[in-house]
Amino acid sequence: SVFEGLSGKLQETMKKFRGQGRVSEKDVKEMMREIKLALLEADVNFKVVKDFINKISERAVGQDVLESLTPGQQVVKIVHEELIELLGREQSKVTFSSKPPTVLLMVGLQGSGKTTTSGKLASLLRKQGKSPLLVACDVYRPAAIKQLQVVGGQLNIPVFTIENNTNPVEIATEAVKFANFKQHDLVIIDTAGRLHIDEKLMDELLNIKKAVNPHEILLVVDSMTGQDAVNVSQSFNEKLGIDGVVLTKLDGDTRGGAALSVKTVTGKPIKFIGVGEKLNEIEPFFPDRMASRILGMGDVLSLIEKAQDAFDEKQALELEKKMRTMQFTLEDFLEQMQQIKKMGSIGDILGMMPGIDSKALKEINQEESEKNMARTEAIIRSMTKKERNDPSIINASRKKRISAGSGTTVQEVNALLKQFEEMRKMMKMMTDMGKRSKKGGLGR
Ligand code: GDP
Fold this sequence. Notes:
With 444 residues, this protein is an alpha/beta fold. The chain has 21 helices and eight strands. This is Signal recognition particle protein.
């Protein structure tokens, strides 16, 4: 499927990195090397790769990343962000003229999928309320005109042609007049393609452009052709000026290089992708979704975001201090539980934890842990603030009141108090150890 090789390699690199608690400049360099190789192998333009790597390296070795609580995750996030940037950042929609009909000129090499895409686009935009007219301007190949008529027939969208006319400029001009007359607010012109770019084709397209003043010129390129797709895009853009690219055949086993290079090399956005031969197999292009798809980590990324929303760094440091000095109370514990809940289910959170594989995850009884958490919360909520801050005052009668209030038993209240005391000791031990190894034994 799309980007399989690239995805696999990047994901492997990311996985190694994601869970790392501490990251050195050397680690980052190693990661950059792996990403670079993966991109080059995916046929991404060399210059694009170089710029991309420079950008992430610069950001990834920044002090705020290396010293953050989750450097591995931060680096993954940076790679994701820069990938989105590479793909064009925002979704670029096709625009419509304020003076209908909107004329879209479809251009591209023969076999790129121009005719199919013209039909797909007409159908897609009709769903958005437009009334499209398809125009067959490939006067050199009768088969091409016939093909567009077949597509139009399948979609029940009219196709404009002029029998025995070999002048594409005339056909295009007449088509726009016809659309005006028939109140079509959208005209999609399918033009002739060649196997290679030549002067004659460019002249013809320029003449059509002059005659009908298209609202947008969309270049259709075959993503299977890799670097060639990028070169073709560059030439068309220089000679004709294009407004956007439709990348076809992304359903095949393309290595993805074209998708990742087109925007940077031409400066023009990918607006749609073709993902199959059927006439509904076209999708608007979303840079963020594509980046997540390439990194194969849509879920993880959203969890990282959620975690960052839930825990800000200052709060985390405050908490660490409390743990270290044994000032961590049941009140803090309750607050922590709320933040964890904000991040999603226990399963979600464990799923993103490094070192927990899916097999181990299955063995953890999610329902049971969530019930436990709910019970713990109920018990703490049944305590007074004073009790939460100093559990040592909780005597037998208080325990009875708490268990009644939370719908639990006195044994369960006892268990929680005992568990909490042990947790506090453990926290102190762990934070002390952490401090020592971090500051080389000096402590704070
Ligand atoms: P044109 O010469 O540029 O008009 O190209 P066509 O529209 O005739 O398409 C050439 C071939 O590519 C046809 O067999 C199409 O079915 C196929 N094709 C077009 N777009 C896609 C796509 O997104 N995915 C796949 N798998 N095939 C496509």
